[in-house]
Amino acid sequence: MKKQGVAMLPERRAIGEQTSVIDEARHWPVRLQKNKIIFHPGEYGDIVYRIKKGCVRLQVDGVGGERQIVAFLFPGELFGCLPGRRSTAAEAVTIVDAEAYSIASLIELNERKHGVAQPLIDAESELEASLAQLIANIVHFPASERLLWFCRWLPCKIKERDVSGFTEFPMSYRDIGDYLGLNAETVSRGLKELESRGLITRRGRKAFILRGEESEDCDATGCATTTKRSSLVPQS
Amino acid sequence: MKKQGVAMLPERRAIGEQTSVIDEARHWPVRLQKNKIIFHPGEYGDIVYRIKKGCVRLQVDGVGGERQIVAFLFPGELFGCLPGRRSTAAEAVTIVDAEAYSIASLIELNERKHGVAQPLIDAESELEASLAQLIANIVHFPASERLLWFCRWLPCKIKERDVSGFTEFPMSYRDIGDYLGLNAETVSRGLKELESRGLITRRGRKAFILRGEESEDCDATGCATTTKRSSLVPQS
DNA sequence: CGCTATGTTGACTAACATCAATCGTCGTGG
DNA sequence: CCACGACGATTGATGTTAGTCAACATAGCG
Predict the structure, then answer these.
(1) Could you give the CA distance from residue A181 to residue A177 in angstroms, rounded to a whole number?
(2) What are the backbone dihedrals phi and psi of residue A47, each rounded to the nearest 5 degrees, phi first?
(3) Which tens digits make up the pLDDT trace of A24-57?
(4) In terms of pTM, does the model score above 0.85?
(5) pLDDT band at residue A215 under the 50/70/90 scheme
(6) Which strand C bases fall within 7 angstroms of a protein CB?
(7) Averaged confidence pLDDT in chain A
(8) Which residue's CA lies closest to nucleotide C8 at its C1' atom?
(9) d(CA B221, CA B236)
(10) Cα–Cα dist A154/A156, whole Å
(11) For B186 and D2, how far is CA from C1' in angstroms?
């Protein structure tokens, strides 16, 4: 509900700054340092987060301490939406600015105003879809294809570009590997291969741009499809 | 709500026959033939299913038509809980008896009686946790360990045993492989290895029993931990 | 300016996919 | 009751891919 004094086009605002129906619930800003653990798996949680700035990873730990990242989240996205035990851990990849919402307050708000729960439901639907897609890609794609898929997906999530249109990896190669089921060496080799095949151009180690596809469409199998309107929860 | 004429211990009832808080919502029984497609991914869905008998798989299809199964579901479990677009396909592995609930009716019921939505939320939480665990296992475990994990998990889900305590695979080796990121040949070889290592005993191709662990505990990393009480949604 | 974390490159190896052939089992129909 | 066919499971031979280990380079940060 925080509005500028003068009416402005909402489209011009940064994603993280956009308001949401859930803003009427009790919420407060939080800032998380790099690698800060936001919550642990199994922990009881009653807070939903909406990212304003930065990148968060959801992950689980295997028996041998090896880490599996199951999702990277970016500005505008919600996580921790389901009340109860956390199914994964959440950690800040970069410094993160987020808005924290009390679930109790959201539930209470939902009773007065329908449709409040919908963004939470949509967030979980998307997470599930992207998890399923991730498994399929890990199992059926070779290393370089998984990386290409990742490089196509990332710019859909990170809207910030410098003048030349390059996208920056906010996470380390190890993080990328822990997401795609590869180790850091293979990530390095794979990116080199993609560059030699002319599919991407790299600037340093952390920035890249896709070649031969200027498209802004994120609808293909690659990028998680956005769960569009579902009117089952009656809108007020 | 179907009760025997004489009062009986509810514990003695089969899992699929147990009643649930959601039973007050509008629902009807359905029977699904083997390999029947229950819903497609991307499809708009407004029905929740609770399995009474049989086995259901959730899956996505890769670009090359290769199939990735992301979950097997058994009696007592709910699926299709999130209103909106389906994130996966659902298909009957065996003949399935299920109860179908209208989500609209559930939502309406939830407004009169709190806590109705909780089983749906829990089901999704568990699905997410098991997806994350599945990814970790596929990536970090060799074939035989994945199969061992599967053989430990399955008896927790399938309570029916014959006198000798063997558990039957309701699904084909190809299904198991499509779940664990293996092909059918490797599933066959892996099960043979587990048997030669003395970890399982097989009866024919479809039945097995674990050796050296008579435990009924399904709490370890292997089996998806049940999301216990989360009182955020106020109970009436 | 040096330390540490992160990325790069090369050599080697093990695991699993693939292909192909064969067998077993179940269901159907003569 | 048996013959047949189809599907699923088994077994073997072979090749490729990515993990592992080791050494080194680079960048970021104090």
Answers:
(1) 6
(2) -130, 135
(3) 999 999 999 999 999 999 999 999 999 999 999 9
(4) yes
(5) low
(6) 6-10, 15-20, 25
(7) 86
(8) A188
(9) 33
(10) 5
(11) 35
